[in-house]
Structures are given as C-alpha cells and as structure tokens.
Fold this protein.
Amino acid sequence: MERIDKREHSQLRPVKITRNYIRYPEGSVLIEMGETKIICNATVEEKVPPFKKGSGEGWVTAEYSMLPRATEVRNNRDISRLKMNSRSSEIQRLIGRSLRSVIDFSLLGERSIILDCDVIQADGGTRTASITGAFVALVDACYRLLEKGSIEKMPIKNFVSAISVGVVEGTPLLDLCYEEDSRAEVDMNLVMTDEGEFVEIQGTGEQAPFSIETFNKLIELGNIGIKQLTDIQKDALGDLSNLIGG
Amino acid sequence: MERIDKREHSQLRPVKITRNYIRYPEGSVLIEMGETKIICNATVEEKVPPFKKGSGEGWVTAEYSMLPRATEVRNNRDISRLKMNSRSSEIQRLIGRSLRSVIDFSLLGERSIILDCDVIQADGGTRTASITGAFVALVDACYRLLEKGSIEKMPIKNFVSAISVGVVEGTPLLDLCYEEDSRAEVDMNLVMTDEGEFVEIQGTGEQAPFSIETFNKLIELGNIGIKQLTDIQKDALGDLSNLIGG
Amino acid sequence: MERIDKREHSQLRPVKITRNYIRYPEGSVLIEMGETKIICNATVEEKVPPFKKGSGEGWVTAEYSMLPRATEVRNNRDISRLKMNSRSSEIQRLIGRSLRSVIDFSLLGERSIILDCDVIQADGGTRTASITGAFVALVDACYRLLEKGSIEKMPIKNFVSAISVGVVEGTPLLDLCYEEDSRAEVDMNLVMTDEGEFVEIQGTGEQAPFSIETFNKLIELGNIGIKQLTDIQKDALGDLSNLIGG
Amino acid sequence: MERIDKREHSQLRPVKITRNYIRYPEGSVLIEMGETKIICNATVEEKVPPFKKGSGEGWVTAEYSMLPRATEVRNNRDISRLKMNSRSSEIQRLIGRSLRSVIDFSLLGERSIILDCDVIQADGGTRTASITGAFVALVDACYRLLEKGSIEKMPIKNFVSAISVGVVEGTPLLDLCYEEDSRAEVDMNLVMTDEGEFVEIQGTGEQAPFSIETFNKLIELGNIGIKQLTDIQKDALGDLSNLIGG
Amino acid sequence: MERIDKREHSQLRPVKITRNYIRYPEGSVLIEMGETKIICNATVEEKVPPFKKGSGEGWVTAEYSMLPRATEVRNNRDISRLKMNSRSSEIQRLIGRSLRSVIDFSLLGERSIILDCDVIQADGGTRTASITGAFVALVDACYRLLEKGSIEKMPIKNFVSAISVGVVEGTPLLDLCYEEDSRAEVDMNLVMTDEGEFVEIQGTGEQAPFSIETFNKLIELGNIGIKQLTDIQKDALGDLSNLIGG
Amino acid sequence: MERIDKREHSQLRPVKITRNYIRYPEGSVLIEMGETKIICNATVEEKVPPFKKGSGEGWVTAEYSMLPRATEVRNNRDISRLKMNSRSSEIQRLIGRSLRSVIDFSLLGERSIILDCDVIQADGGTRTASITGAFVALVDACYRLLEKGSIEKMPIKNFVSAISVGVVEGTPLLDLCYEEDSRAEVDMNLVMTDEGEFVEIQGTGEQAPFSIETFNKLIELGNIGIKQLTDIQKDALGDLSNLIGG
C-alpha cells in the first residue's frame, strides 16, 4: 500500500519546530508536521485555580482552537454559535493532562502556565502536534521563570510528545495525514515520555472493532515516532534539554 | 491490598439492569453498578443530521448529564453557567462513538436514535456504565422498530459494553469505585465487543506515566469484566439477545 | 363523567414518598403521584445570597428540571438551546416561594437549602408534586442540621403541600393527570398549609374565563386533596412530624 | 391605616391611556397608573409559531422588559448577563395567556400579534398595568387588520384588564404602589373580563399563609378595580369598544 | 433638491429636550429630534471598573438599545438571540468615548456614571441624538453630586453634542432623517465641543468613496448644526450651563 | 520628537505581504507591518445573506479576532466569556464596509466572500493592516472565481488600503505602533482608494478635542501612507493589479 505522499509506513512527516515565534508570550513555538501548522504559546500567570489556592503548587492548562479556514471547508467561529466546539474541548483537556503528567507542581510554585494551541493550518494530527509543540513552549516559559529567579529548579520531569497511528486499508501507519485519517479503520493517539512510558492512550475503532494484535502493532509504530519526536524536541531546545529530568 | 468494599481485585460490583424503567422512551434502562445509578433512555426520531440526509442511513448519538446532587458535593447545572460541562461533552462523545461501532446504519434506515444517559447517583465508572446500559436501551428501541415493521432486521452487529480498570497503590484493579478512582495512578476505560475486540481504549497516567506491562495487565483485567457484563446484558435482554449479530 | 383512570372526581392518584432515595444529599425524596415521578434532593450550603449576608438569617431556593424523556415527546436539554426553559423558571420560583413561606429563617441561621426537583417521569401535576416532595426532603435536611447541632430548633413552622385542581368537560376534578390537564378549561394549583391556609393560588382560564362559583368548587376539592397529602407527608416523616410547628 | 398617597383602600391610582404613542407599531399605548409608566406596542406578523402552522388560526404572545433605570436602583440589562430575567419571563407568559383568553383565533386568521410591554418607570403593578394597556394596543392592531380587509370581524371576545390587590398591615388594599407591595403580607394579581369572570388569579402569601376570608375580601376589592379599568379602556377606545364581543 | 420634510439643506429638525423625564435616575432626559425619540438616563454608581480602582478618578460609560418596535419593522430583542447587536455595541462605545472627552475624571472622584440611551422611536440620527441628550443627563447627574457635596466642582470641561451630515443625490445635507440616511452616498457623524473642536469624526462612503472637497462641505454643515445644538443644550440646562468649563 | 523606532514622522513601518500563506482558502495573505502580523483568509461561499437572496448580487463580509497572546498581556477567548469582544465587533464591521466599497456586487454574482482577519501578533494598527491585507486576499479569491469561469470580469473597482495617523506629544505621526497609539492625543484611521478618495474616516480625540487644522495635517500624512500601501499591494499582486478597475 503506497501512502499519498510516498512515505514509508513508519515514517514521520517532516517536522519543524520554530521557537520564539510570537514575541510576547513567555514561550512561543510554531510546530509544523507536514502541512499541519500550529502556534503554541505559553503564558505564565501568577495565580492558580481555586482548588490549588494556598497549596504552594502550580497548575498547567491548555486551550485549543482552529482558525476558521485552517481546513478545506470554513468552520464558523465558536463565538458565532455561542458554544465551545466539543472536539476542541476534548482536545484541550487531553493537551492539559499530557503536559501536567511531566510537571512537578511544587517546583513550579503557586502559578499557572496556559498553553494556547492555535491551529493555523490543519492536515491531520493536530492534537498530537499540539502536545509536542506545546511541550517546547512550556520548557521555554519555565526557563524564563528560572532565569528571573522565580523558581529555583526546572519543574519538568520528562520530555513528553505525541503521535497518531492508525490502520488504513488494513495497514498500520505512523503519523496519519488528514486524507488517511478520514479513511482509517482504527485511529489511535499516543502520548509518551522520552523513557517510553505512556501518558495517554486513546484508541478508537469506530468503523470496526480491533484486536489486541492490531493494538500491539500500532503501539510499536508509535514508539518509533515518539523516539524521533523526542530527538526533534531536544534539537530544538539545545542546551535547555539538559535541564529536564535529572 | 484490601479494597474498600472487600471485593477481589478482579471482581465487578453488583450489576443490575432494569428494562422499561421510564414509560415513555422507546428503550429505557436503569443500570446500577454498586452505588452508581444511571437512567439510559433511548429515543427514536424520524430524522437524521444534515450529513446523513438522503443517505438512506441512520445515526446514533448520546447525551450525558449528572443530576446536581448525584455526587457528594452539589454541582451547578450547566444552564446556570450557560456552558456545557466539558467532561460531560467528552463522555457523551465517547458513548455515541461506542454505540455507533456496533450499528449497521443501512439496516437502521434514515432515522436517529438518541441515548440520554442521566446519572442520578455517581460512585465511579459512570461513563462505562452508561455505555453498558445504553446498549440495552438501544436494543429495546431497535426491537420496537422491528415490531412496528419500520425495519426488517435488527441493525445491531455485536454486543458492546465498557468497564474501567486502574492501578491503585501499585495494584491493578477492575471496576473502580469513586474512592479508588480518585487515588488511581493509572486510569483506563475499555469499550469492547462480545467477541473480545476493542471499540475504544482510553488510558491516562496523569499522576505518573505507565509501562506497557501495566497496560497489558489492565487489558487482561478488563477482559474479565467485559465477559461478565456481556452475560449480564444477555440475561437482561433474554430472547432479544438472539437477534444481535448473526 | 368518567375519569380516564376511573378515579372519583375528588380522588387523588396513589401517592408514594420514598425518603433517602439518593445517598449523598442531606435530604432526598422520590415522590410518585400516579405516573408522575420526581426526585427531590435537598442540599445544605453554608452560605447565603448577597441580600442575606450578615443578616443571621438563611434562605431556601429551588431548581426544577425534567429529563429529556420524562414526557411522551423528547425535549431538548436547556443547555443545547443555551436558554433556561421559561416554564421551568416559573415553576422553580413557585417551589421556592412555597417552601420559604413555612420556614423561620432566623432559626435556620445564615445558610441556604437548595431543593433540586428533577422530574424523571411526567404525567401532570409535576409542580405540585415537587412542592409536596421537596417539603419532606427539606424536613430531612433540617433534621440533619439539628442532629449535628448546627441549629437548636427545627426551623419549619408548618407543613406545606400542593395539588392541582381543574375543570374538564365542565366537571371540577382533583389531581389532574396529563391527559386531563391538556383538555382542562380551567386549571388551578393550590399550595396550602396543614392549617388550611393558602400559600399560593394560581388559577388560569386560558380556554375560557371562569366564575367565582367555579373557583369556590375548586378550592373545596383542593382542600380535600391537601388534607390527604399532609397525612401522607406525616406518615412518611414519622416521628420527625412532631418537630414541625409547635 | 392611611395609604402613602392618601388614597382610599379601594381607590385606584390615576390611570391614563394614550393611544398611538409610538408611530410605527400597529397598536401603541402608553399606560400610566400613578407613577408606573409602560409602553405597550402591538406588532402584527404574517406568520405563526410551528404548532399553529396550517391551522388557519393565529396566535398572540407578549414580551416584557424594564429599562435599566425604571427602578430606584439600576438593573443590568438581560443581555449583559446573557440570561432572561426570570421575573420578566414569568410576567410575559402571564400577559400572553391573559390576552389569548379573549381572542378568537380563527377570526384572527393565521397571523401573530406580539405585544411588547416595556416599563419605562416602575412603581408597582407593572404586570397588571401591562395587561390593561396591551389589551388596548391589541384592539388597535386588530382594527388595523379589519380596516385593511385582512380580517372580516374583530377577533376579540371580551375586554380584559388586570389589577393588583394585597394585604398591608392587615388591611386589604386595591392597586398597590411599590412601597406598599414591598411590605405586603399577601399579594394577589387578578385578571378579569368585563363580565366579571376570572382569566387568571395569582395569590401569594410568602410572608405568611392567608385564609379564605382574606382571599374573598381581596377578590371583592379587585372587582371594584376591574370595573373601573374596563370603563377606562372603553373611554380610551371610544367607538372601537362597540366592536368587541357581540 | 427638495427634502422629504421641506427643510433647508442646512436646517435641523425640531429639537426638544425634556429634563427629569423619568423620576428615579440622577439625570433623565427625553430628547426628540423630529420623530427620533430617546430616553437618556444617567446613573451614578459609587464604584469604578478594575482599571480605575485606587486611582482617585472616575469613569463614564454608556449603553444603547432600541425598543423592538422603535422602527418600522420589529427587531427581536438581543436577549432572544443571546447576542448583543453589533451596531448597538459600536454606538454605545461611541457615546461613551464622546462623553468621556469632556470629563475631568479627577474632579468626578472614584465613581462611575452610566448613560442608558434607550431609543423609543427611531427616525435617523439616533446615535448623535443620544450623545446630545446624554450630555444633558450627565450634567444633571453631576449637579446632583455637587448639591450633595460628593464633589466640589462640576467635572465637565465643555459642552459636547453630535449631529449627522450626509450626501443625498449629490447634495450635502444636515441632520438626515431615516429616509434620507438610507439613500445617502456619504454618511458622516460629527461629535464636537462648544468651542468648535472635534471629539469624533466618523465618515463612511460605503456606496462610493468621497473626495476631500465633499468632506469639507460636510464639516461646514456640521458646524452649523453643532452650534445650534449647543444653544439648545444651554437653554435646556438654564443656570447649570454656567457651571460647565471655566 | 524622536520616534521609538527612529522612523521619520511620515514614514511607514516595513510592510510585507505574503500571498498564498495558508493552503486551503481561496485567498490567503500574511500581512506584516513592523511587528503587527495578521493572517487574512478569503473564503468564497456560494450563498448570500437573506437580504441579498434572489438579487443576483453578492456580498462581502469580514471577521476579526486576535489570538489570546497576540498582545503583551493574554486576553481570554471570546468563547470563554460567551461574548463577542465589542472592539472586535466594531473592527470587523469596518473591514467589511471598507472592502464592500470597492466591489461591484452584480459582477460578483450571488455569492459571498468572507474575510477572516486573525491577528497573530499585535503592535498597533491591526484594523488598518487587516484592511490592506484582506484586500489582497480578496483579489486572489476573485481571481480564482475568474479562472474557474464562475465570473466573467473581476468585480473590484478600486484598490483600497488603510492607515492610522495620530498626534503624539503634539506631533502628527504616520502609522502608529502600539506604544505611540497608547499615548496618542488624537487617533485617526483612514481608509482610502488608489484614487485618493475616502472610504472611511474615523478620528477620535478621547484625551482632548482637536481642531480642523490638526485634522488636515493628519489627512495629509495619511495620503502619503496610502500611496505607498497601494504600491505595495500592486507589487504583491503583480499582473493581477491590471484587472482592477477599468
């Protein structure tokens, strides 16, 4: 089975991470995975949600949105329907959980970091690319705090990145583009650390249920992708990489 | 490690499915799993969403909500905040996807079935119990259509049910109650068919990432639960069970 | 004129009050009047609305809602239209006023009790049954405060219950079911105390105006119903009944 | 007991009805009852709500609102809170029901009349004054249809007007101003026809329950007020009065 | 070119300013310009928006709305669509900016004045008439503060008023009525002080771009109108006029 | 007076227009004016608003929004407050009017073009840059229609662009950056055609009223900017420029 863009079944699309993309945020990344392009901005706010008040601990949250014309057909803005898109709502909860899994909240101190992931062009895999890109913006925002002396140690325990895998025409594939995704029999999103552990697994067989064997093959493919994404994050972060974990 | 209610690690809570619970819906089930109690009502509507119009095919969707005092602390109603609860939004998307995975939409014909899952008492596992209960209500609603001659054959290809599994204090457990769920290091929801295939896997390690070994143990536990839930669904449905699949 | 369910003109439908229906609320009642079934949950909150702050006095309020399929035809949820149903809004104001009329707010102290009345099955008379059931839940919630020592004396001055009366085909009837209600020429809801005094009278002759004679006959019928409902409340409450008034 | 404005207990405040107040609506009335001032505009629309489509019959509905500074303290506009004021919602339902009770919908034909009641200055009794004033605007709008030949006969069967009565310091009073209303032990709104029949009775004893004797005295007072209001409506309408009923 | 109401090209419609129109607000004006009629109510609130807190300075803001039937065709209320009308939103921002331009916020002290401009009848020029009328209500509200001793000096530096000008059939006209406005090639709103300086200029050539010459002619016409409006404001305010500026 | 970035008083910031920025829209431009960066996407839809239906004519409209972190301080998204930002609402109305002024709607045919202007980085002048950039995207979208044969002739009559001018410390300046804008005594936005005619003038003297002399100097400065912006648009459009007008 030949992929639409001639990629190997286990090949990522070209990934490019541009740091300091927007000038104002504490961390700002443009992540490109093939034709998918997302601006990930990290904002530090010196306050926490009510359930963290007085705890001495911080919080990390995310918001996700697409420009109306990030897709082939224009989508109305949420505000024109007065309703948050339920897909966006689900995705931003996933991004938030994924990033929180690698944060040491007591090291962060009683402050919040908000990751705004705005998709300016979508070609599949926007939720996973958001996580991969937002992680880098988060590191930059934390480093800013470290430089200013607001925190004493980087509060990030591990690298985290994410990738989609799926089965198209019976074939397990890594990093689905939109055209593949829309035909996939099984669709899975993996969020993993640089140590190969899972932060989140979301697998769906809406067109047809799938077996444990299929599942295992997809996990294997995902592992390949995550390893490369971790390396790409490390390249992008340069020396800052050494401040993570340890 | 002893569980709060003395259950075995691989033991379900008592499950009770009451059919025809509310008199008006085409299918109506009260499902009780321990102290979790959910009314699952199925409504047949002779119309489909825009993207299905003229296709000759039907659609299945779900809505999920909790009564304000289904929980220890009262939650404000969505309408008082003018916002759909994002957790509810995510859960109802999951219920809808899970049920759609076992439906033959061309046999259903151009009509919709809406599954309203209203939690009247919550003690963990409400999303999985909703799926298990809503499936039975869905069968009843389809059978009503069959009886009336609106459809010629039951449009349900498989049984589908769901269960939560998780790791608490390092121990993999089946069917977490709220108290266990709130302490879980890993939390996973499995939606599976009676043939042991996966419809949906959602695993989260927010407190800490988890390994493939942990994952495999949880899948094993989940399999045990799903088999029992399928049997309970069959018992509840009696002769109607024979109209599914085949 | 024979009633659809063969009842006498002045006969209530079978009434059943189940206390402690849901496990978490401070008071929880399932009230059934014929096929009308409503969960009435009472929540105590240790805060009051702004206009009561610092007054040393408490407040009682109510919320009313129907499950989408409590009725023959499914109703969309309020949140999907982003608007509170105006009928629900009117009803919950009535429930709140009715219960407040028998409360001694200084005995309650500076705290609130919220009565959530959720109709799971509707067959007419849901607003009056909500009042009758919510009163019992309110007594339970107050008794819980008394037991804990939060208050020194039960703050409830009188029993309060409610019933619908109406004119169908020229005949005054007690306790209309939905089928009767939808054909009624005159429709009246009475909220009364155990001492036979009025808390609220709402009479409507939308199909045709009505005379003072008709009105008086309906009041008479209502009196019969209220007396029985008070007795049913007393039976349900057992010894707690003695703590009211006095 | 002397009233704040020296009126007799059974005396209305000065009532003034100005027709053709705003130039565009099909009927437009400014009604003044003492310091209460309300603009009642009637709009004819050549369409009906879904449940009347194809019936050959019309519909009448009402909307009620107050200018932010119609009262001593400024109220925020509904749109700034994104919620319809629940008091307004209840009142506009009452106005609509009251006017519909005297309309022959088949004579009106398949069209709607909307009554917008906007309170520009409030001093008690705004809901009852809205009904009394809106009735006159409704007559004008119907007459406009008659003149144009859109309808063949006036579709109005009776005069309808409304008045508040209440008990203040133990004394039954007619037509309460705001200061009296805020101190009232019992508060009742009566909507009646020119034939002395009831369209709507709404009595509330929130501060204390009330007896049937009190109720009867209030009804008596209300009758006095309604008779005068009917005469004032007739004066305002002049010859058009003869087209009502008969 | 003859105007629809025979006015000269540079002639205002009859202007009438009625002070103390509604009894409760601190300032209340009914302004009539021809058939345009607007109630302008000024409310003093002893609080300021967050960005002014602790500054010792006050704030002035405005809200603008039209009754549903202020126009030939009925407009739905904002609340029924759950969205603020964007035209109203733009107009109220203009009114607020215009009034703020002549206020000395330190003299006003840390309090707010809200100007509610509610159009009860619209025939063009509602935004400019709102400014002209709201200014007078603002003066009254400030004088009330002065009388009470809350402020020591009137905080109003200049008179401000506004007028529309436009080009219809190639002819520059002053003070367009609705019929002219809807045919205008160029439409301009001028907000000016009594010293002939500009506070706001908004010119639009949606039907066709316009030249600097056209612009200058319109400014000239506008000047004529503003001078007269300032005189009308002075007449309406009487002795209070002397407290402005100086 | 030296400007913060050393520019001449009459000097534009560097302007860069990138066409085909996003791959899906019919026209897509990234416009950069100094540090202000806006994505302008044009979408063609084969439908028109109700008031244009059956007219044979098209429509052009715009939407404007800022990413939460386009500014120094993060702004909450509109959807989280359930309210369209009123500044955005005003700006998108301006963009729409400006572009419509140069369109021949009968040549466009009965279809709509929506211009989405999303500010990814803001440093003053976002509304004027949006107009300048959106015009280029609009030309591309129209040319796409011409190429496909959907229209026979380009429906664009003139170039249109926009620029801000203002007075800072008494000095008239062209193209204010944010820092200058926030200190400006007078602030004006000019929308003009390539023929030097005005489409829209919006001048505000919120800090202090301004004279006709000031106004004339600002117009002069604006003219200088508009001429250069027209040239930049022509450069960006290349041969397509010849299809505009004549």
User: Anything to note?
Assistant: Chain E has one domain: 15-74+83-243.
